[in-house]
Amino acid sequence: MIENQENIDKNSEPVDISSVKKPVLDKLGRAYATGRRKTSVSRVWIKYGNGKIVVNGKPLDKYFLRKIYSTILQDPLNRTENTDKVDVFSTVSGGGLSGQAGALRHGISRALVNLDPSLRKKLKQLGFLTRDARKVERKKFGKHKARRSPQFSKR
């Protein structure tokens, strides 16, 4: 036991806590992250470019026809001033358009942190890195929906 402790002391080096986190990139220079919201799951790849956003092989304005959805997922890019600095390629599945937009926002935020770790503090303060855990409550037996009871009849 004592010999083992001595070996650990000889072989161990002090850990540099002040070291800056490095970007997590693949061979093509892209940062990857997964985002989730309701039942939607998105896979997001981000690389430095000119601001092109592709969702499931379609441009952003062709996939999300309503402006509110594209505004939701572009929020992390706008708040960190990366709108025209990075290209976003993503696939999203499951759920409806609202859940998919939220999943993409979550994925883009996490991928931005992998691309540039200095953005983590700002995105965390804005709440973009927190997974929204709200899901549809299941229907219970004896009820019309999750909580709606049948109409009460006195007689």
Please, could you describe this protein's structure?
With 155 residues, the chain is α+β, with helices and mostly antiparallel strands. The protein has a domain at 27-126: Ribosomal Protein S5, domain 2 (2-Layer Sandwich). Helices cover 34% and strands 19% of the residues. It has helices at residues 2-11, 60-63, 67-79, 97-115, 120-126, and strands spanning 31-37, 40-48, 53-55, 58-59, 86-93. A five-stranded mixed beta sheet has the order 1-2-5-3-4. Strand 3 and strand 4 (58-59) form a beta hairpin. Helix 3 packs parallel to helix 4 (97-115).
Descriptors:
34% helix, alpha+beta, single chain, Ribosomal Protein S5, domain 2, five-stranded mixed sheet, 155 residues, 5 helices
Indicate the topology.
Blueprint: H1 2-11, E1 31-37, E2 40-48, E3 53-55, E4 58-59, H2 60-63, H3 67-79, E5 86-93, H4 97-115, H5 120-126
